[in-house]
Amino acid sequence: MKKLENEKEYVRKAIDIGTRYAEKRGAALFEPTDSTNEKLEYIYRLLVRDKLIQPMPELQVSQQSIRHRLALWAASLEKKKS
Description:
Largest sheet: none
Radius of gyration: 12 Å
């Protein structure tokens, strides 16, 4: 797994974009008490379900791999915006 240069920043952007997407779609309503890990997993599974990102094999799904996958997703959205 290749580390992104600003992976933490991209993870924050992925959480922001993903929570707005889920709430706008009506799929979730996140509470301030929800943990970051819960948000990340929910966003990952929602994006996979909506076919916006490729799923990972279940044996490879971990918090680290979810963070990396969502960081890549946020980075790709930023590239499209430019």
